[in-house]
From TrEMBL:
Superkingdom per UniProt: Eukaryota
GO cellular component: cytoplasm
GO molecular function, one term: protein phosphatase regulator activity
Protein name as it appears in the record: Protein phosphatase 4, regulatory subunit 1-like
This protein's record includes keyword Nucleotide-binding: no
PANTHER family according to UniProt: SERINE/THREONINE-PROTEIN PHOSPHATASE PP2A 65 KDA REGULATORY SUBUNIT, WW-BINDING DOMAIN-CONTAINING PROTEIN-RELATED
Keywords on record: Repeat
Translocase recorded as keyword: no
Alphabetical list of InterPro entries matching this protein: ARM-like, ARM-type_fold, PP2A_Regulatory_Subunit_A
Length: 186
């Protein structure tokens, strides 16, 4: 499964080690490519998703492609969704990138998964809601943008709005809340 191809660098050995996070015009080989090690494709996903290297945001950027590859197998699909949930605890750059991917992931799940509402509600809605109160401004802003897209597309259920989203927004508008949070919540 190849996630990103730009230019023609063929000298990568185990995925990402040769490049910095801000490189432009490089080829990032898929961290799921066979032959890198003795891990399964999902094992490689987890290896790179939770490594200390700077390419975790590239892993976040490639999650939609990973879901496309593994969405036919229920166990693999759940493993990928659980990886997304664990990645949501990563640093602000990864959290922000993950939030940018949520609307695309939600649209894919909506179009291809019969159990979309349950999977979306269980794995992705809690991340979006949690990020509305994230200490990092960029993460909060991307979460707000993602929430608006999800609402515009009709992807969040009324029950999730009432039980998960609205309580957080109401809490953010309370008099004791930080002024920036109040403005963002409104």
């Amino acid at each position: 499964l190849s996630l990103y191809f730009e230019d023609g660098h063929d000298d990568l050995d185990d995925g990402f080690d040769d490049y910095a996070a801000d490189c432009d015009g490089i080829r990032i080989t898929a961290f799921l490519d066979a032959g890198q090690d003795n891990l399964t494709p999902l094992g490689r996903l987890e290896k790179y998703a939770f490594s200390e290297n700077t390419f975790n945001q590239i892993v976040a950027r490639g999650l939609l492609d990973v879901l496309r590859e593994f969405s036919d197998n229920e166990n693999d699909f759940i493993s990928v969704m659980e990886t997304i949930a664990r990645m949501s605890e990563d640093g602000p750059t990864v959290r922000s990138e993950l939030m940018e991917q949520v609307p695309n992931i939600a649209m894919f799940l909506h179009e291809s998964r019969p159990n979309f509402p349950a999977a979306f509600s269980r794995y992705l809605v809690p991340i979006v809601v949690r990020y509305l109160t994230d200490p990092n401004n960029q993460v909060r802003k991307t979460s707000q943008a993602a929430l608006l897209v999800l609402l515009e597309q009709g992807l969040i259920s009324k029950a999730d709005m009432e039980t998960k989203v609205c309580p957080v927004l109401l809490e953010l508008t309370e008099p004791s809340s930080d002024d920036d949070y109040k403005i963002e919540a409104v």
